[in-house]
Amino acid sequence: RKGTAIITGASSGLGLATAKALAETGKWHVIMACRDFLKASRAAKAAGMDKDSFTIMHLDLASLDSVRQFVKNVRQLDMPIDVVVCNAAVYQPTAKEPSHTADGFEMSVGVNHLGHFLLARELLSDLQSSDYPSKRLIIVGSITGNTNTLAGNVPPKANLGDLRGLAGGLNGIGSSVMIDGGEFDGAKAYKDSKVCNMLTMQEFHRRYHEETGVTFASLYPGCIATTGLFREHIPLFRLLFPPFQKYITKGYVSEEEAGKRLAQVVSDPSLTKSGVYWSWNKNSASFENQLSEEASDADKAKKLWEISEKLVGLA
Ligand code: NDP
User: Fold this and answer.
1) Which keywords does this Swiss-Prot/TrEMBL entry list (predicted)?
2) 36 in ligand 1 pocket by Cβ < 6 Å?
3) What is the ipTM of this complex?
4) Model pTM greater than 0.80?
5) Active-site residue numbers?
6) pLDDT digits over 68-78, tens only?
7) At CB < 8 A and 24+ separation, what contacts does 35-38 make?
């Protein structure tokens, strides 16, 4: 039978390119979990995806109710769930003021981490009950949250501190909107959320890999300088960033190539190892990359897990 993969944020960029790459193999049915149904359906059509190769379902990660509703809806499809890809993200580098999810959390961490945390926790039992040969939960990471790299050292650097802001609810009412308790900074909030993504993947691996047989993985797909992720950046940045990445840092990767990389993490029989953060070298060969000290701190991962459980109502 075909595998079924859920991809969040499949209406553009990496998520769409991955959905297309998987659909084209003829071996996958993709559930595109998107906040904007019409945009997703237009994007799938424009990408030339066969209409039988995907199903679009509504998911707004900025609302925990929407996440719970999505889980109910996806179960009603009566399809096995073989792979879940947590890909959607918001990046607000120029925001002067924080914005908030329906549950009051600062938006970047609320969507990128907490919404996905609840989704992944809820769908773990579905993955476990699938009979697919290799079941996977993939959480897209980034180099920018990884302070052992050049890109990860561009200020403001990711830093979760002692997680006091998160423990306080991350809502700006009685607690900071930043995980470390500091002043709002949209670029840092995004990087912090990516550290959370990478810590969460490893904590899932430690807690559930043996018990469930699910492969947990994260990845840095390369710098996809053309995606919508940079839509909120100043125009000059948007103009110069792609050529800068192409010719100076040489970290540039096209959406199509990045989609193929993520599709590999979804389906390649050689990438079944769990607890890995995948990266690709210049020849586009995958390798197991090292994470920064903070992004591989097991105590922090445990603490993050426990606080996140409370915030999303699982504990
Ligand atoms: P895009 O902005 O193109 O895609 C982000 C997707 O997330 C969109 O489909 C967007 O939906 C969706 N999304 C945003 N908010 C929500 C929400 N509340 N609920 C549901 N979906 C939502 O960016 P990319 O493709 O670049 O980013 C994809 C992933 O890749 C992210 O995890 C990012 O951190 C990661 N990444 C990107 C890099 C890059 O260089 N671009 C580098 C490293 C990692 P909509 O279409 O409705 O806006």
Assistant:
1) Chlorophyll biosynthesis, Chloroplast, NADP, Oxidoreductase, Photosynthesis, Plastid, Transit peptide
2) yes
3) 0.99
4) yes
5) 190
6) 999 999 999 99
7) 35/11, 35/59, 35/60, 35/61, 35/62, 35/88, 36/11
